[in-house]
Specification:
two-stranded antiparallel ribbon; mainly alpha; 359 residues; 68% helix; globular; 2 strands
Length: 359
């Protein structure tokens, strides 16, 4: 009986791979095209494009309107105009980093300002108590959003679209559609107007609200880049399933993010009172979309897991610079909104293109 297996051949011989395969390179890194290199660079540093756009805008408007654009008073005016949107953008960035979106940030801001304002002016509650109650109202609104997203597993877009209407109804109910005059707020709770106080620096005027925005941005930047909680936020937005397998409690992370975002919106409400001097239920009508605009133009991905607070502040500055520059150039508000719309579309298109490097 003949043995069909040739025992002279060991297992190693049957496991041989193709000749020269050990010297082959599966992914040729050095053969990447310049476009691929640029794509990967922008993926690693997403705030590069917003900085370039801001620089181009400054150059263009300096050319068009001359020294008026770079006048210290005008630059400080741009900063004041973007302070509220920049603060809301910080809250929106936290949520978008988790692959969510919040359409209620503007309503939370106004509701918080109404709570702290009416308690102090109408109900006679000491400002030392009414102010933290206003902050607590913002946190409660964020907590409700977080509960609906995590416990009911509803899409953040639908949840915040609904709470936007709910919080808006609460604003009208509690405020009775009344605006508290600047004089009344000043006499009963001047501390609420503190964020609107300007510090003269030469010809420029920097408000405490703008400084507060930068302080909040610095704190959140530190949280995102130097703490485990920040890494959990990025991981949850990038791949929630992988984050859970890595031991991250994604629901608890989302709850903390929405609650923290509500607190930041309440701080924006305080800045809003200082900005307009009064407490109005009609303020911040476009704040929801403006905050998303700042985040998207600032390079934060709508798909989560990529972006930065610095990019959001740059995005808010881009919107402020373009609107201010076009106004100084004598163009109608129509073209200002047109330009912002184009910037949004270009920013999202760039984000889609950059994300392909990770696929």
């Amino acid at each position: 009986m003949t043995n069909t297996t040739d025992n002279r051949h060991g297992p190693a011989e049957f496991e041989q791979v193709l000749p020269g395969a050990a010297d082959a390179v599966v992914f040729e890194e050095e053969g990447r095209s310049p476009i691929k290199r640029l794509q990967q660079f922008l993926h690693a540093f997403p705030t590069t494009i917003p900085f370039i756009v801001l620089l181009i805008g400054v150059i263009v408007f300096t050319t068009l309107v001359g020294d008026r654009f770079f006048h210290p008073f005008n630059l400080s005016l741009v900063l004041q105009q973007v302070t509220i949107i920049g603060t809301l953008g910080i809250a929106q960035t936290l949520i978008i980093l988790t692959a969510g979106i919040d359409l209620s940030v503007g309503a939370i801001m106004v509701l918080s300002s109404i709570v702290m304002g009416r308690l102090a002016v109408v109900n006679g509650v000491p400002v030392a108590l009414s102010f933290p109650l206003g902050l607590l109202a913002g946190m409660a609104c964020g907590y409700v959003n977080g509960i609906l997203v995590t416990r009911l597993k509803l899409p953040p877009f639908i949840v915040t679209l609904g709470t936007w209407s709910i919080f808006g109804a609460l604003i009208l109910f509690y405020s009775r559609s009344e605006t508290l005059r600047q004089q009344d707020v000043e006499s009963a709770a001047a501390m609420l107007q503190w964020t609107g106080t300007a510090i003269p620096i030469g010809a420029a005027r920097i408000t405490y609200g703008s400084i507060l925005m930068l302080v909040v941005a610095g704190i959140i930047w530190y949280v995102l880049n130097r703490t485990a909680f920040g890494r959990h936020i990025y991981a949850t937005g990038d791949d929630p399933d992988a984050a859970r397998l890595a031991g991250i409690n994604t629901n608890r992370t989302l709850m903390a993010v929405y609650t923290l975002a509500g607190l930041i919106c309440a701080i924006a409400g305080w800045i809003l009172i200082g900005r307009i001097g009064a407490v109005s239920p009609l303020a911040g009508q476009t704040a929801n979309l403006d905050s998303i605009t700042a985040v998207v133009i600032g390079g934060t991905s709508l798909f989560g897991g990529r972006g930065s607070i610095i990019g959001t502040l740059v995005g808010a500055l881009i919107v402020g610079v373009f609107r201010n520059g076009l106004a100084l150039a004598g163009l109608d508000a129509l073209w200002q909104e047109f330009t912002v719309g184009v910037l949004i579309i270009v920013a999202v298109a760039m984000d889609q293109w950059i994300r392909r490097i990770a696929v």
